[in-house]
Amino acid sequence: MKVLANDGISKSGILALEKGGYEVITTKVAQEQVANYINQNNVSVVLVRSATKVRKDIIDACPGLKIIGRGGVGMDNIDVDYAKSKGIHVINTPASSSESVAELVFGHLFSGVRFLHDSNRNMPLEGDSNFDGLKKAYANGTELRGKTLGVVGIGRIGQATAKMALGLGMKVIAADMFIPQVDVKVEFFDGQSITTTIVSQSLESLFEEADFITLHVPAQDGYIIGAKELATMKNGVGIVNCARGGVIDEIALIDALDSGKVAFAGLDVFESEPKPEMRILMHPKISLTPHIGAATDEAQDRIGTELASQIIGILG
User: Fold this and answer.
1) Of 23, 209, 273, 277, which is the active-site residue?
2) Which of 44, 171, 256, 293 can bridge 262 by disulfide, Cβ–Cβ 3.0-4.6 Å?
3) Oxidoreductase among the record's keywords (predicted)?
């Protein structure tokens, strides 16, 4: 059987599938040609990440499709229920990239509190001519330790983020309408660990209390953070979104950054992805990455082998 990994798959995933008797195709097929390619090449399994969409049109056009796999967590680029109604298995890897995303969240947090994103833009331009000026401009950093991190969505990635925050000595609060409370276990290199219970609170109270806010939610119909929500937050709050574009009103965010209400933002995802707005890309108070939360070698290895294991388990 043939597997089309249209958005790529790790070497370990390819080897595991090949060992199971599958032929893996890593040719990148344009979105509008995916259905034709699947049919012409008798593809039984299509694997995607966030780029390729598997909607009703592809599902209807490809009667030989047995499995649709998403390398990662969110499946908003797949018509999951419709695929299942047609007898197609839909799989994903919700646990494989949690630590990678959480580490990127802290990359943005550290960047924001110490102005790394902006100093790395300006040091090559002015470092030799305005060293003292830049030193003064970036002199008012703050520490994360002792501050309150508000985690919106305390699922797997939210919990991984909470663990890192606790390790840094931060207070962690959370809001999650589906998870009333969770025990978070922070494990150390020598086998020791500590466990603490995080109880969900209202989103409104989280916005009021948090010094920093990180979002870990699926795609939404509307904004979780808009002008109204921003107005209730602490002055100088930092906001990070490594979840999904469209959960923050970017126009309201820019206004809040310009007014100083929000000290900085860290964005890995964008409303108009893959063409983020220029006002976002050029803003000196925004730390930017191009949707790379799960893009570590370790996460991709875990994703590839887990997908292979699920496929072999379903189809044999």
Assistant:
1) 273
2) 256
3) yes
Whether 145 is catalytic is: no
**Alpha carbon distances (Å) from 174 to 29, 165, 199, 201, 207:** 40, 12, 7, 6, 10
Q: Is the pTM of this model over 0.85?
A: yes
Is 283 an active-site residue? no
User: Which member of 244, 250, 302, 306 is catalytic?
Assistant: 244
Structure tokens at 54: 């598997």
Checking phi first, is residue 72 left (phi over 0); if not, alpha (psi -120 to 50) or beta? Answer: left
pLDDT in tens, the chain (316 residues): 999 999 999 999 999 999 999 999 999 999 999 999 999 999 999 999 988 999 999 999 999 999 999 998 889 899 999 999 999 999 999 889 999 999 999 999 999 999 999 999 999 999 999 999 999 999 999 999 999 999 999 999 999 999 999 999 999 999 999 999 999 999 999 999 999 999 999 999 999 999 999 999 998 899 999 999 999 999 999 999 999 999 999 999 999 999 999 999 999 999 999 999 999 999 999 999 999 999 999 999 999 999 999 999 999 7
Strand order across the beta sheet in which 212-215 lies: 171-175, 148-152, 212-215, 237-241, 262-267, 286-288
Give, to the nearest 10 degrees, the angle between helix 297-315 and helix 11-19: 20
DSSP letter for 248, please: B
Q: Taking a C-beta distance cutoff of 8 angstroms, is the pair 69, 48 a contact?
A: yes
Give the Å distances, CA to CA, from 253 to 133, 191, 200, 202, 271: 28, 42, 25, 21, 12
